[in-house]
Amino acid sequence: MKKTIILSLTILLSFVMIACNNNETKKEAGKGPITVATMIDTEGPIIGKMIISLLQQDGFEIIDKTEFGTPDILRKALEAGEVDLVLDYTGSGQYYHNVDDIDTDIWSDGEQGYLLTRKLDKEANNIIWLEPANVNNTEALAVKREFSEENNIKDMEDFARYVNEGGRVKLITSSSFSENIKGLRGFEEAYGFHLTNDQLIILASGNTSEMLRALVEGINDVNVSLVYGTDGALDKMDLVVLDDPKSIPPVYLPAPVLKGVVYEKYPEIEHDLRDLFKGLTADELREMNAKVAFDGMDSTTVATEYLNKKGLLNRE
Which of 12, 95, 178, 279 has the fewest CB atoms lying closer than 10 Å? Predict the structure, then answer.
């Protein structure tokens, strides 16, 4: 009888130990946590939610910090290690480093701008830029179609003429664009015009949803707005994006950017996100952005719909 009891206890203890070992193995196999953050615009949270879904599918524990803040806040958080992975744009690389000895026109070439940004950030900060989407979310100015037709304004040369002839202008823009030699200052220098402070409404954020609303509704007499190449509401709002024949603003390709220590520990992140960024198109991003900015859908729903449509979820 004693032998039977001892044998039973031994078997029970063996099961307990196996269960404990299995739990430890599962605990060790868990990946993360990874903190994913984006800007507070429309596009950032959509792509951010896609990134989160794909990483969770691969077993990562994720801390969701989408809509984290303005571009400068997001960048500082990544450098400080407060977040692990962000969505950023290749053209922004020129603002993160001392480029006095570099011809900044290199950022007008999508591929070369990406390669240089990746090199500079790896060497200076051990920050890794993964392969970007081939979608240029560059900056431009837009006006209402009626305004464009009334004043014969189709490109930046026409706009310069209009300004210099004393035309009424109230431009709404972000602070970073207004102060940038590759932004408004670059437009003014290249096309030969100048806007005074009373012709500008400058916002701290680069969220163009607010700017486009001001343009369409004429809030505070706004008749010109900063826009981005993949803004979803441009067609629905019947706006005209002014052509920039001199290609002043840089090429902005969206890319996943992460701390080097995270990349070294989890190199599979690159594989997890490659197909998403490789497959994104400008038309698809504009459509998704419109669903959020114009139709009022939430970014998680839009992101999930896209991933399912592309067959990127529930893959082996």
Answer: 12
